[in-house]
Amino acid sequence: MALMSVAASGAWSAPNRSDRVPWPARGAAQPQSFSRPVAPVRLQSGTFLGAGDPAANLALDRSVHLRPGRVHVIVQFDRIPDSTLRDQLAAAGITLLDYLPERAFFASVPTDLHASDLEAAGIRWLGAIDTADKLSPPVNAGEVGAWALHADGTADLRVKAFADVALADARPTLEALGAVVVLADGYVIASAPGGLKGAHIEFPSVSVGATENALMAAALAEGRSVIAGAAREPEIDDLGR
Questions:
Q1: Comparing 61-70, 194-203, 232-241, which segment has the lowest mean pLDDT?
Q2: pLDDT-wise least confident of 30-39, 84-93, 164-173
Q3: What is the dihedral of CA 42, 54, 232, 2, to 10 degrees?
Q4: Residue 28 dihedral angles phi and psi, to the nearest 5°
Q5: pLDDT tens track for 112-129
Q6: Which of 43, 94, 135, 142 is deepest in the core (most CB within 10 A)?
Q7: Cβ-contact 32, 49 below 8 angstroms
Q8: Pick from 233, 98, 230: which is nearest to 163 by CA?
Q9: What is the DSSP pairing of strand 46-50 with strand 20-22?
Q10: What is the torsional sign of CA 201, 207, 210, 215?
Q11: Residue 19 DSSP label
């Protein structure tokens, strides 16, 4: 968790996605393209049905990943994983992070995961994460409460990284963009009194989570930022649009 002062900026908009089908309005029939009843994924950014084959969606991620690693995705199951299934997930290298409604989770998965692993784990859908999926609606719309604003135009924002993203990895990115980071009571407190500034950020190894954090911070920074060693998954491309 981090608290940082950043320059208030514009809104994000979610791109069109081939792996998502907008959820019908209340009372509307389920799309005929789905052969059996399925539950929608409900996020702050909206409600949708997962589309596409999980293995194919992951293969798209794998095709643009330069080096072996992990990627943050949304996974949806046919049923809530019990202890036995969770052991299978762990054996396959799948880490469940935050729970989402309707049997879905934010998850960290290895990019070399096989289709058989997905099937054995009971994953009915896997897809990339959009920026709007994680930001609160007001922040996504570029609106920050007056209580968080400062006279210099910066705003205090509390930021939470995924549990598998080490604070040591996130901290250099924040500092490179002009934030002041302080450890207090188990939290990272980051502030940028003069606003975030564009910077050259170089990762020693490819990290999807670190690239996502760097992109979002760079979008709020003044000036040009260059991210070297960035991940190249489709969700990173979506995030940059």
A1: 61-70
A2: 30-39
A3: 30
A4: -80, 155
A5: 888 788 888 888 888 888
A6: 94
A7: no
A8: 98
A9: antiparallel
A10: positive
A11: T
pLDDT (tens digit per residue) in 192-203? 767 788 888 887
CA distance 102 to 109: 20
pLDDT tens per residue, range 123-170:
888 888 877 787 777 777 777 777 677 777 666 766 677 888 777 777
**What secondary structure does DSSP assign to 191-215, as a single string?**
E-TT--B--EEE-SS--HHHHHHHH
CB 109, CB 235: distance < 8 Å:
no
Q: How many C-beta atoms lie closer than 10 Å to residue 56's C-beta? A: 11
Burial of 187 from C-beta contacts in 10 A (0-12 / 13-18 / 19+): middle
Tokens of 24: 């019908």
Residues 125 and 181: their CA atoms lie apart, in Å, by: 37
Residues making up the chain, counted from first to last: 241
Amino acid at 108: S
Helix axes 167-176 and 208-220, enclosed angle (nearest 10)? 30
Rounded distance, CA 224 to CA 153, Å?
19
- CB within 8 Å of 16: residues ≥ 6 apart: none
pLDDT (average), residues 188-216: 77
